[in-house]
Amino acid sequence: MAQPQEGDLVGGRYRLLRASGARWRARDEDSGEQVSLERTRVSSAQDAADRVAAFDRRRTEHARRRAAAQRSSANLVLADELVADQDVLWSVTRLVEGRTLEEDVAAYGPVPETTATPIAEDLLRALAVAHREGIAHGGVSPQVVRLTGSGEAVLTGFDTPLGDPAYRAPEHDEEAPTAAGDVHALGTTLQHALTGRQPGQADDAPAGELGRLIARMRGADPARRPSAAEALRLLQAPAAEPPATIAEPTETTPYRVLPVVGVLVAIGLLLVSIIGISQVDTSDDSTSDSDEASTTTSSYDSTSSYDWDESDSYEYDSTETTTSTTDSTEEAFEDVEEGSCLPVYQDGEGEWNTSTPPDAVPCNDKTAGVFKVISTSLDSSECTSGSSDYVPWSYTGDSGYTTTLCLDRVWVPRYCVLAETTPDGGVQIGTTTAVDCDETELPGHYNTVLVVSSVKNDPNASCASSSSDTTRYFSLPADEGASLVCLTFPA
């Protein structure tokens, strides 16, 4: 069949908007929402039709499990629909953009362990949730792992033949994929990420904590491999903070506890308030008029007792109470600590990706946007550095007080920022931005995207990897001029 083109309508419903390899951003003409479509060629038109029919038969049966899995993990992307077009199978999912792990390794080489570890955590978390709901993948490989602009790894390719067969477990059965087979395939996928080698080229596990876990995940005996949840716990075990527990596969339904606790606490506070009001000393009838007009306080005597009389009553006087509100955003800004790191970035139009400071992350967190808090007490005009890479983030609360966070970007290789090419061949780099590396609809005045190729500790170093490297690089100083950030156009 002919290659798909922008504007084509797939399955009478999905309008193709923009391609990135075999992946397309599309518009659902029924809902108006944008979705992701991925195409793969199968053996025949009948094969494509059979796969769609099998998916439709399972749709109702698996609806609850699929919905529960996707609610539990943002790193999990399940197909919402399959569409057959002759011998091509289209998989429709929620909109997910970013390069695949396969594309990343091909363009930039092996992934450092510090970057691969959070990728492994995201993928193990996704598999653990899927397996808990009784859903096996059957085709985990670098082709179905997507690296988003926000630094997350997501697992796609469920219900489709997208995965590379070379990554499958030795005991793989296409008709009956297993959780143990998925764990083996993910181990092989992570080994490829760390080494850049294809399966079979060299099967020695890489060194390090992640390498040792990969060796266990790729064990020959399926019964002795860790489950995805066990592997996640093993990977997180060296961390200082205890890992979140992901339950093994069960049919139990999770319940939210925090709202219940909140209600109980509120009830307890109400009872304390009632008892406290009842114990205000009102027995002194000789109190002067001037005393009655003043603010009354009472002290609690632990030796006294109080007998409840049902005839007692308390008449509410609205003049005795005042209503106060708190500005939660102001409190969040005030709670930020100097030296902490925040996962934030700007969208290219001067707005931060969040209005409230999020929870801090490790400063070596391998995500697209991480800023270190240099100061919480400077004015915005004082937030400057020798390398001009500090940026202020200010908020004026209901109290009238302005809190300014002075931020310094932590540059992470392999992630992309917005830029503007200039007529003289140079570029203006959006040093506070983050964006998907294959994004083409760019905000504001930006007209291109650059990827961070490396960060040099020597500010006088060359960005080129060797004398024969002809790649065009752009650079900027960082860390008060002590470092050099090298950028280039994405591959």
Automatic annotation (TrEMBL):
Signal sequence region: none
Protein name according to UniProt: non-specific serine/threonine protein kinase
Compositional bias segments (type: Low complexity): 293-306
Known EC number: 2.7.11.1
Domain Protein kinase positions: 1-240
Lineage: Bacteria, Bacillati, Actinomycetota, Actinomycetes, Pseudonocardiales
Biased amino acid composition, Acidic residues: 282-292, 307-318, 328-337
PANTHER family with a match to the protein in the record: SERINE/THREONINE-PROTEIN KINASE NEK, SERINE_THREONINE-PROTEIN KINASE NEK2
Keywords in alphabetical order: ATP-binding, Kinase, Nucleotide-binding, Transferase
Listed SMART domains: S_TKc
Organism from which the protein derives: Saccharopolyspora ipomoeae
InterPro entries: Kinase-like_dom_sf, NEK_Ser/Thr_kinase, Prot_kinase_dom
